[in-house]
Amino acid sequence: MEAEVQTDVVVRPVRDVDAEALGRVHAACWHETYDHLISRAALEKVSPKRLAELWTHWASQGEDFRMVAALAGGEIVGFAGSGPARDKDAPAFRELYFIYLLDAWHGTGIGQRLFDATIFAGEAAYLWVADDNPRAHRFYVRNGFALDGAVHTEPFLGETLTEVRFVR
Q1: Span 49-75, pLDDT tens digits
Q2: Long-range pairs for 140-148 at CB < 8 Å and ≥24 separation?
Q3: Facing residues of 155 across strands?
């Protein structure tokens, strides 16, 4: 059963003090998102503590970076981040690095709010997403993105993950 939209949902910039909670939510989202793509053994190696350390770094990026968290009832339930393109052949300046939302909150509109806080209306952008993630593909198409034909296979948790590129 999908959660109902709560009136106490807030989307705001990530703060240093969020790192530990973001690490926990990040790890949980990876389990929910990649459980059909990556082995359980690899996912069990995900360290919320290590992810929290990454968040401490990400939270202190410059103004070209947009890192936001969604809170429901004061608890972080999702996050998103964008910034300058990392690819040499980048089709746009802005790259959506990630957007994750706990499964229980899918279908509530929070994912759209996270997206809107990191990629502005009409802004040219691109992103990489797992090839086998149809829900995410539909979300990005609804937001004006299209596959551009670029594909790569990346190391992920000691295994590999095939990703496709969407561009707007």
Answers
A1: 888 887 777 666 778 899 999 999 999
A2: 140/166, 141/166, 143/112, 143/115, 143/119, 143/168, 144/168, 148/91
A3: 160
